[in-house]
Every structure is written in C-alpha cells, then in structure tokens.
Amino acid sequence: MSASPLRTVLPFGEIALEDLPRVGGKNASLGEMIRRLGAAGVRVPDGFAVTAEAYRLHLREAGIEEEIYGELEKLDPHDVGALAEVGRHVRERIRSAPLPAIVAEEVTAAYAELSRRDGVPATDVAVRSSATAEDLPTASFAGQQETYLHVSGASRLLEAIRDCMASLFTDRAIVYRSERGFGHRGVALSVGVQKMVRSECAGVIFTLDTETGFRDVVMVTGAWGLGETVVQGSVNPDEFWVHKPTLRAGFRPIVRRELGEKALRMIHDERAGAKSTRTVAVREPDRRRFVLSDDEVLQLARWALAIEEHYSARADRPTPMDIEWAKDGPTGLLYVLQARPETVHSQRKGARIELYRLRGRGRVLARGKSVGGKVGVGPVRVLHALSELSSFRPGEVLVTSETGPDWEPILRHAAAVVTDKGGRTCHAAIVSRELGIPCVVGTERATADLATGGEVTVSCAEGDEGRVYEGRLDYAREEIDPATLPVPRVPLLLNLGAPDRAFLLGQLPSGGVGLARMELIVLNSIGVHPMALVHPERVEDPKGRAELQRRLAGQVSGPEFFVRQLATGVAQIAAAFHPRPVILRFSDFKTNEYRELVGGAAFEPEEANPMLGFRGASRYYSERYREGFALECQAVCRVRDEMGLRNLQVMIPFCRTVEEGRRVLLEMEKNGLRRGENGLAVYVMCEIPSNALLAEEFAEIFDGFSIGSNDLTQLTLGIDRDSALLADLFDERDPAVKKLVVQVIEGAHRKGRKVGICGQAPSDHPDFAEFLAESGIDTISLNPDSLAQVARRLAR
Question: Whole domain around residue 433: which residue ranges?
Fold first, then answer.
C-alpha cells in the first residue's frame, strides 16, 4: 500500500515501486528492496525520502518556479556559454531559498529517529538525488545529479537537501534531459537520505555481462573505499563473473576473476572537524589482493539474482539490473546501496550480433580493457581538462584521463574513447556502451603516448584487451541475426581458443564447442610451464627464476595458481555455452612450444621433429609430465564439480595406440576424472591414420571421435603442414584423407559412437563441409566467422 500523499517525508519502509512519481526511481527502488527482499536476506541501509512534492513546494514558496522554468524553456542547450550561465543562476536560486517549514520539520524529525535507531546523537548519512524520471528501463540518468556523503547534523542535512535539489539543473542534467526528450517541468527531484555505510570497499554489480549482453552471469566489480572511484572511473577495479544457472543449483561458479590495480581509495575525512571525503593512495600489498573473498562475491551474486528475479516478476519481462554495493568496515557486513534497471543491452531489439574483425595489423600504441566489441577509426584528440572540450571535433578519438557526466555533450560525437583510468563500469564505459561506440579504458598512459592529430584504429574486437593501433586499419563487420540462420541437418559447433570472446560467441546459434584449446589458455593466462610450478627448484636460469617469482607474487602456491587460472579460463567457455556441450582438448603443446613457457627449458628435451615427438597422450602418463597433467585434471574437476559446469567434456589429442588410450584413462581416474561419472564423456582426436584404421578398437574405450584434419592430412600425405615449399600439395580434400574420414565415421557408427570434426578444413572449404555431411558425420565444428556461411551452404 502506498504511503499517504499528505507527508513530504516518507520512511523507506513505507515506499514501493508504485511510489516512483512521488519519490523518484532510486528511492522507490530502495523502499521496494527493504519491503520485499529483506526476507531473502538482501541487506539495504535504512533511511527516508524527501518527496518530489517537497521539491515543488520549495520552488512555489520561494516564488522561483516560473522564473527558472521560463529561463530553461528559452535556453538553447547547445550554446555552452548560455547553458553555463542559466544553469548557475537556477542552481543558486534553489540553494539560497530556505526549505518550507513543514519540510524542514519532517526532515529533522525523521533524521532524529534514524539517529536514535543508530544509537548516536547525529548519524552520518548519504544524501542522494532521486529524479522522477530517473532509473527508468530506457534511461538511467546515472551521474546527472549530485550525491553528498558523510553528512552529519540536522542543519548540514537541510543544506545538503537544498544542494541536491539544485543539482537537478547541473549543466549535464539539462543537456541530458533535452537530448532525450524529457521536459524540465515534467521532472521533479526527490531526495534520498540513507544511513551511511563506512565503506571498506564498494563497487557495482550488473546482472549480465556488460560488454556482450550475455544474460547468464552476474558481474561484480569492486575497489577499496567508497564506490565513487569505481563509478567515476578513477580506478581500475577488481572484476568477478558468476554463472547464474549453476549458482542457483547450489554450486560456487566464479567463472572468472580479474585483479584490478585499485591505485586510489576514497575515504571519510574528519580532519579539522570537517566531515567530507578525500582520495589517498592504496598500499601496494592491498593493490595485489582482491577486495572480496569468494564467499562475499557469491553472497553479492545471490542477492543480485534475488533482485533481478523480483524486478523481472514486477515488470513481467526479463529485467537486468545495475546495482551498487558496499562493505561496512567496522562490521564487515555487505549492503546493497541502490538498484536500477540496466539500460543498454535490455533495450536492444532482437538478438542481432555484430562481429568485427580487423583485416590488417599495425603498431600497438596503447592497451587497456575493451568496452563493447566494435572498431573505431579517426584522428586523436587528447584532452586534459573540461576547459578544453570546445576544441573537440566530431569523428575524433577522444583520449583523456577519465570522463564524468560533464563530458557527455562531446562523447556522443566521438569515433572512439580511450582513457588512462577506469574499469568496465566507469562513466566512460557506461556512456560509450549506451552510445554504441568503442571504448578502451585503464590504459594508464594513453594521454602521454598518443598525440593529437595522429590517425589511430581503436579495436575492441579482439577480446578483453582493447588496443589502439597506429594508423587507419581496414576491418570487416558482420551482423548475424540468429533467427534468420537456417538449421542444417548436421549440428554446427564452434572452435574456440581464448575465453575472452566466449560470452559473445555463446550467443550464436551453435550446438556448443567442438574444440576448446587448453594450451591457448595456458599460454595467455598462465605463461609458465606447469612442471616449473610444481618444481620451481629445478629452474636454474636466473631470468626464468626471477620471472617465475614475479608471476607467483601473492599466490598461494604455484600449483594452485595454475589450477585456478586454467579453471576460470575453461569455466568461462563452459558457462558461455551452458548447457550445450563444450569439449576441452587437454594440452597439445609440442616440446619446442613448451620450452618457450617460463621455466620450460628445464623440463623439455630438444627434438629434431617436435610435430612427431613427445606430444599429446604420450605426455600424460610419462614421469616427465605426469604431475603437470594432474594439474590439468584438477582444473577440469574444479570446473565440473565445484562450479557445476558438467556440460564440460574432455578430449585426448594425438593418441597413437589403443593401449596408450587406456593408460591415459587410468591416469585421469587417479586424478578424479572417471569416464561416465557425473556424465563425463572422454573423446579422442582422430588425427593419426591409426585412429581411423582402428576406429572400432578406439571406440571400445572412448565416447567418440573428433577429426583433426590438419594433422590427419599431414600424416596421411607425409607433408609438414608448416612447410611453405610443400604448401601447394597440402589439401584436406585429397582422396586418401577423405577415405580415412569415411572409414572412421563408419567404424565409429558401427560401435554406436559419434564423430565430429574440429579441424580447419570445413571452415576454409565449404565443399569439404558438404562432403562431411554427405558422409554421415555427426557434428562439424567451425571457426566462428565461418558459421553463418557454412550453415547457409549446408541448408541449400
């Protein structure tokens, strides 16, 4: 039941979403959570709302209503000088007038009651704006008005409320409303007064992946101190992704973690008796550790799920949420500070997926975190201060330290945005995402390393790392509407290397992942030979030993570092495609490739022909690598058993004999992976002629085959696949190769086993894909950029 309309102050406990016209989006949401989600354990700091009617009464009693709206209605918001002058005058008129007596009395009484419940004479509160057009599903209004933290005492509170009301007319808020078609008279401001959380750390939660719109994860970000540093983008925060379906099932699916540098902390400042905030540097040991434990991340994720499910039920449609959280230092308790609908991905019509691909390469000038998946090209404009905004020209690449709401008038005209500071939930990232422009944040040195006028290409299309390339590079753009793709008789799967594009690619209409390459995760996320992590004492090279120590700084142990990094990389892929199958190939480095990893030279022999040497299955049961394989198995167990991602299956590469296959399966059992247990399927690569010739025998011990056409062609025709001299002879469509393919399909089917292909051939040669379909293959796994073309061809 909504509260009485006669009062100008309402406790949060009496407010619900239906009261949005009276208390604005933020306050209505706080009241809704306190009333409806407390039973689910969601903890929200108490407080009260000063209603929108109080704001209107303030303007009427001060006699300024017609004056300020008259000025605003005549204003051209694109005239920067006039905007600054009118905005300043309107704010000053609102601030200088005393609040109506009834408002002041009700605020003072509500504040006294809040302080009494807190057990102090004058409790600290946060004073936040809550506009009546704010936090709508189509417009967030985030950062348009002001927030005042650590306000204490009735007189200071009344002053902060007037300041908050005046901030409805910041220059940026005036422009924001004008550009989105909101009339100034139609928007009023309620003020939220909320018990202050003494934030040890704080941050933002999204109930989807912010870059791809993937709905099955909760993304938690956090940094030390007050959360304003995360929202403003002055720090690069920690990031965590939690898989929703397996979280609901009771597992602990933190499928990815990224440690942020968190160089700054905003803290409460009581120097000289004044209560305010200041920013200080974070100690190096605190920068190197995560702000949240796994238990705390999972608790926040569960709350986020409860909030999303509640709001989705209220709206009768899926409603992804944008949530702010904080951890109270003195008590260690977690709190939700506010929640609002996410306004970018939730507004997209249909499920069209854009895929960008660079066709060229250039010198990398800057690196950071990518926002979105697009590519932008243009001349650089380096700006160091707001006073320089007038020099910006449409179509330029904006390069600056960080942005705030005051930058929005030029952001919408940028070809791309690059910042020194910030993470994926900072202001620059949020606005760029909303505007659909590529953005690279947290580069640290872009303003120093990029020069105004230089032509650059900003790429967010290569995974998590965003790059700024020198010059104008050519690129391709493909838009796929999954609803329009035909469904061929043979299911099409994807080949996947690095996990960082998995959340995007998982939204394509594929049957899952036919090949996830473990070695690419080891190379990109770990970079250390697994045996060097088990036996660091054997690494004698001084440079290798120093690099090993650097990478392990702050880690529990070398083996745990390997297992954790590998597990989260694999889990990200498994989560992206859940519940569709994901087939992970155990490591298939050759000895020369293993030697290139940190510490690798101490454990790898030098071979004349590594392609035919100590690789694949033969490593897993050998004393040279058995302990390394044990770590690989532990990572798979963690993904399947702790995170609950049992759609993950495994595959053995380069298994020369049936007996070797048995030895590998026995080694897996010793390390907790028993074929058939909890649905674990074990596949074998068919990339050696012996696999095809003895298909029925291999089918006795494995659950299926995946044809590796590159190696099968190499070993059938006797051609080094890397030889430029013989490249003209290397062809997967050779009759001898095709005959072996047919042989393995027929042999496997006689034993009731399935056969897929994960080699390059069907991606490069659509006619080979047709041959496979005609031969009765069960699945075809492709490079992602070949999916649409092959699907259409097979359907024809």
Answer: 353-479
